[in-house]
Specification:
The chain is an alpha+beta fold and 182 residues long. It is built from 4 helices and 9 strands, in the order ββααβββββββαα. The strands form 3 sheets. It has a 4-stranded antiparallel beta sheet with strand order 3-6-7-8, with no helix packed on it. The protein has a 3-stranded mixed beta sheet with strand order 4-5-9, with no helix packed on it. Strands 1-2 form a two-stranded antiparallel sheet. A hairpin with a 5-residue loop joins strand 7 and strand 8 (113-118). The longest helix has 16 residues, at 15-30.
Length: 182
């Protein structure tokens, strides 16, 4: 089914009809002629090329590759979202591979797979795998982490002057003064 326009061009009603007409033109008109560039008939050259059918051809990895630096809380950022990495790889530069199947694969610097996440479609979302945090203890408060204590040895002189001596008295004296003034 072809609607003719201006004598030569056709508009095809369906894709199937268009494909059928195109293949008929290739087989009867284009491919039996001698090609202007190669000087050969395409049908004859095709046999010598040793091409394979498309379903038996080699597949190619068309994944997008990039690198990201993981944060101290074991995340990498990609596409406005956060994805967890094993705790041992916090603050490291990692390889990130985004596949055609919408998977985000995180690999070490030498290419060992560390994590696999589904690519998140929104923004400011998190994909967390609990096993990335296994083996981590509970955080210790900063006060408990302090290991250095400053002590002044007896008899040593401080680089600061001595504080003035002040009188120590009961606070009731201030109540008396306040009553007298008011």
């Amino acid at each position: 089914m072809c609607a003719e326009i201006s004598g030569r061009a056709c508009i095809f009603v369906t894709w199937k009809i268009s494909t059928r007409h195109s293949l008929a033109w290739l087989n009867t008109t284009a491919n039996p002629r001698v090609h202007g560039t190669t000087g050969e008939v395409p049908f004859m050259r095709l046999r010598s090329e040793g091409l394979q059918p498309a379903d038996k051809a080699l597949s190619y990895d068309t994944s997008m590759l990039t690198t990201r630096r993981s944060s101290k809380d074991c995340f990498i950022s990609y596409g406005g979202n956060l994805y967890s990495v094993p705790a041992a790889y916090a603050r490291k530069t990692l390889q990130v591979k985004i596949t055609e199947a919408e998977e985000l694969v995180i690999c070490s610097e030498v290419g060992h797979e560390l994590a696999c996440h589904r690519v998140l479609l929104g923004r400011q979302e998190r994909s967390v795998q609990a096993d990335h945090y296994r083996g981590l203890g509970t955080p210790v408060s900063r006060v408990e982490q302090a290991s250095a204590v400053q002590e002044v040895a007896p008899g040593s002189h401080s680089m600061f002057w001595d504080a003035p001596v002040v009188e120590v008295r009961s606070l009731s004296i201030y109540d008396q003064v306040f009553q007298e003034v008011s």
